[in-house]
Amino acid sequence: MLVSQILKTKGDLVFTASPAETVGAICALLYSRKVGAMVVMDGDRVVGIVSERDMVRAFAEEGAAALTKPISSCMTHDVIFAEPSETIDSLLSRMTDRRIRHLPVCQNERLVGIVSIGDLVKWKIDEVETEADGLKAYIAAG
Prior knowledge:
Layout (H helix, E strand, L loop, with lengths): L2 H8 L5 E2 L5 H11 L3 E6 L2 E7 H11 L25 H11 L3 E6 L2 E7 H25 L1
Parallel strand pairs: 1-2
Antiparallel strand pairs: 2-3, 4-5
């Protein structure tokens, strides 16, 4: 299963933010949009990703003062990307090794979607269940 297949079903909607938006504003957006991360864009270029984990770290370090700072002060700058042609297994491995939960998907340096570890696990479970059902049917047909 390829990332492109997930995006065809899931869609390519990605919530993005500007690096100048405040931590407080991003917290409100994460909450209202019911997402765990947002891609930070400077024009058409991905410059970072900000997650709930980044917000918690900012509050732990700076307290309420973090709310008025720009997200560029706490976002992850070294973004790890996925490509539409990559497999679920390769991304699951990368995300587990790096301890990350969201991967922006880029093609030719253009943002085309985002996948979460939850998306990948759901697809992996569906794939395994389909395979198991096929094996059961094969055995039953004897």
